[in-house]
Design goal:
2 strands; flat; two-stranded antiparallel sheet; alpha+beta; about 25% strand
């Protein structure tokens, strides 16, 4: 999604879901959790982002920081 019409920069939201909810409620907009936003001039590589995110999350989860 372009930030504005003349912009070449786009925003990509990173969202999470609450897995304790039934599947039909997990994907509703009001039940999604915004984890972050990537702002860049081309579509980011989601695999690279997920690798970094999962690695950091695991570190914070195990060390509590």
């Amino acid at each position: 999604m372009a930030l504005y019409k003349s912009s070449k920069i786009s925003m990509y939201p990173i969202v999470g879901a609450i897995l304790n909810l039934p599947p039909h409620l997990r994907t509703k907009k009001e039940n999604m959790i915004l984890l972050g936003i990537i702002i860049c001039n081309k579509k980011p590589d989601s695999n690279m982002f997920l690798e970094i995110f999962c690695s950091n999350f695991a570190t914070y989860y195990t060390k509590g920081k």
